[in-house]
Every structure is written in structure tokens, then in C-alpha cells.
């Protein structure tokens, strides 16, 4: 008998304890969910405020605003200010942008062409105006638009002239319906609602439309005053039937339970209030407490299961001891496996580090090889041009020899004036040879340092002189349409010369056998780049243009090249941030190659 009474008493105690713990856990879960939602929405509001807060200050720096406030009677300036307001509103994605003088009168607005324009309206009564004047800094305010009747956040900042004197205030209105639309209820089955209250306890954001512009101060709170009436014009601000209940055990100080009466009934919620940043707003998250009943029922079932489970504890303990021994053995085996796996990972990591070092060294060697290949290709071009260089220099050398012999005869005859004339001709011929060899010497030199700002024209001049010195280019009409003004670009003169010499040499080879060979070079501006084109009237390109830029691909005999010129030229142009391409001309016979280099305004 005593055993039965004790069993019943213990059963009752277990059920009572389960009911209390179920309530504590249920309310804690609801509170935690409310705190999570409160934090999420608080961050959302903070991000929105931080996004728009610096915008009015930046707008106030625009000189046109100070000019418009200084000359409000100048219609031309005011029109420019209105148009600037439109552009600013479009850029920042705001609803309205308008400019007010020191009296609060709006002199310019983005909606100046609309019937409900702000222009001519006085907003000196708005806090965002007189707070910006009082603080001489940024101000934030929330209200319904007195003209549009649409909810919005108002950001303002004073406008100063060049001497720091305050001239007026620029204001930006941002619609807040996005803040309301971004409220997402929890994924659980709990019924959750959101409210944002102002300092007077009036809701201006709500997940429930019927709670919008309602008084949530409760029966004991003061009714909204005149300030709230002005903030929400033409709204009743009807109080909500709100009763604060006793706080359940285990909740934090910011939480509590409330009952909202509607349609003759009531609904109980767990309410969590959180202040929002930078504003006198309060975020109130309300989650239905109906789930607490289900939690308590679950705890009751759990308590009953625990009670009856004690009867089988000895079976459970015996099985537990057996499993613990098995788990201990498995744990030792797992530690051995982990140690072996760790050693394998360390070896793999060491091999990976060595492979990375090898790859980095290979990349370094590749870059050096590419530079050597570019230099070798340049020297190969010089080797191919050596015959033309000899031909170009043989004529002035023969003339120098002839002038020298004649000078000796004139010296014997005493004709010093003829000797002087011959010596002058010899000097000119020597200068010609020196200039020719200088161009080849510069072309053969390696590039020094990173790319800089250079004039494209001297590189074309030097390339034309090098090609013109070739024997096979004597009958070719090279037309260099040289711009009158400098063409500053991002590049390297020696590398650009190498590209141009390759393109011109290809054009000369393509013109072999043509009756009236012509090569045209021009430079033009194109979308922030300088576009240099080399065109000929030869046979044209026989194959796909992209295949021409593959290494060792060539349509020339072996003695005229190895097929590396265009490949290396493309690598050079790509490294300078440009683009090299080629195609057959659309306006006649022949081919055209063009490359682009980034334009620079001035030389630095």
C-alpha cells in the first residue's frame, strides 16, 4: 500500500515538474525566436539608415545648391537646381530631394514639374528642418508626407557657402515600405508579428495592416499628443486594446506577455521590445504563446516516459556499461587512425608545398624565356633586314668616296670653295648613315623598366625609317598619316617599335609583285584607346586571322621568318593592356592589322 502511494506521489511530482519546465522551455524558445527576429530586423533598419545618412551631406557639397540659395530669384539657376535635384533623386534611388532656404521655404525640388510639387511650400515646422539648423549637421526624421501622404524617412543636412555661412537645408525622402516588405516571419509554425513604434507609442510599420497607425501605449499610457497628429495627418491613431500580463518565469527584462483584444476576443503574445539605432523608435516583436501549451504537453509526455522508463533502468544501465566498453575500444582505434591520417596529410602537404615552389620557379623561368624570345625575334628581324641596311648604306658610302676623291683634285687645283661644298655633302651623308644606324641600335636594345606614358608618333616614325631602309621597300609608297598633336598612351617605345616593325615587314612581304604597292599607317582615338592601323593593298590574308597569331605558323618562305613575329607582337600588346587583331580589308584588296593602347591625357 505504501509503495503504491509513493509511486502515485512521485508520478504527480513528475507531472507537475514537467508542466513547469515545459512552460519555462516554451517561453524561452518563443523569447529566443523573438530576439533573433528582433536582431535581424534591427540590423536591417541600421543598414538602411547607414546607407542614406551620408547622402544629404554629400549633396550639400554641390556648389549649385549654394548658388541657388544665394540667388533664389535667378530662374536659370533655380531651373538648374531643379534638374540637379532630379538627377540626385535618380542616383540615390530616393522618393524626393528638395532644397529649402533658412525660412524653410522650398526653392527647388525633383518634382518641380508635378502638380503636387514641393516648390513654394514651407517645411520649417518639420523637425528634420529645424534640427539640421539647430545642430548645424545631419538630422533624421520619420513622418507621413504632408503633400503625398506616403510614409518616408527624411534625411537632411545644412548647405554652406564658401565662407562656412549656413544658407539653407537639403532634404532627402526615402520610402520605408521596403522595410515593411522585407519582414519575413519565422519558418516555424508560430504566429509572429512585427511593429515599429515611435516615441509616442504609435505604430508606423507593421506586418499587420490593421495595426498600422494605432496607439500601442496600453490603457495606462498617455494618448498621442499634437506632435503625433502632425506627424501622421488625417490618421485616427485609435488605441489598441492592450493588456500587460504577468511575466512568466525565466524571461529576460526586455520580454513580457500581452493580450490584444480584437473582434470580441483576444490573443496572447510574447512581446520583445528593442530600441532601434539613431532614432527614437522601438521594435516590438510579438510571437504567439500557443506553442507553449504544446511544449508543456510534450514535457508531460516526456515526464511520463521518464517515469515509466525508470522501471527499466537496470536493463538500460547494463546495456550502457556494455556499450561504453565498446565505445572505449573504438575510441582507441579511432585515435590510431587519426594519427596515421595526420601523418599522411603532413606528407601530402609537404609534397604540395614543393610542387608549388616548382611551379613558381617554372613560371619565373617562363617569363624570362618569353623576354629572351622577344629579344631573339627582334634580333632575327634585324638579321633579315641586314641586307637592306647594307644596300641603304652602300649608296652614301659610294658618294662619300666620290666626293673625297674630287676634293683631293680640287685641293691640287686650289679650288677651296669646291672642296668645302664636297665636305658639306659628305657631312650630310654621314648624318644620314648615323641616323639610320641609330634607329637600328635603338630597335635592337632591350626594353628597360615597366611601361610608362609615351607618345605613339615617335615609335611610328622610327619604325617607318627602319622599314624604308630595306632594299625591297624602295618601290613601296609608305603613307604615314601623322597626327599633329601628341598621342600619349600607356606603353613602351621599344616594344611598340618591335610590333610596328613586324607589322610593316609583313606588309612589305605581302606587296611583293604588286604594281602600285601602298602601305598606309594612321592613328585615331577609339573609346578611350589609341587605335593604330597598318594597311596594305597586297594579296590579303590566306587563312583564319586567329591562326596567324599562333607560334611558328607562317605563310612565308623559311628565309623570311619562323612564324613568331605576330605571336610575339600579340604578347607584347596584351602585356601593355591593348589588343592586336588582323583581317582582310573590306574596302578593297589587301589586309589590315590594328592594335590598341590605353589613352593617357597628358605626359607625367
Provide a descriptive summary of the structure in words:
The chain is of the alpha+beta class. Helix content is 49%, strand content 20%. It is built from 13 helices and 18 strands. The strands form 4 sheets. It has a 6-stranded antiparallel β-sheet with strand order 7-6-11-10-9-8. It has a 5-stranded antiparallel β-sheet with strand order 2-1-5-4-3. A hairpin with a 5-residue loop joins strand 4 (151-160) and strand 5. Helix 3 runs antiparallel to helix 4, helix 11 (456-468) packs across helix 12 (493-510) and helix 12 (493-510) runs antiparallel to helix 13 (565-575). The protein is flat, with a radius of gyration of 44 Å. The protein starts with a helix and ends in a 6-residue tail after the last strand. The model has no long low-confidence stretch (mean pLDDT 78).
Characteristic terms for this protein:
604 residues, 13 helices, 20% strand, five-stranded antiparallel beta sheet, alpha+beta, flat, six-stranded antiparallel beta sheet
Protein structure class: alpha+beta
- Largest β sheet strand count, sense and barrel closure: 6 strands, antiparallel
- Count every beta strand, where a strand is a DSSP E run of 2 or more residues: 18
C-alpha Rg (nearest Å)? 44 Å
Give me the number of helical elements: 13
Helical content, roughly?
40-55%
Beta-strand content: 15-25%
Average per-residue pLDDT, rounded, comes to: 78
Shape from CA axes?
Answer: flat
User: Strands of the largest sheet, in order across it?
Assistant: 7-6-11-10-9-8
Spans of at least 5 consecutive residues with low confidence: none
Distance between the termini: 106 Å
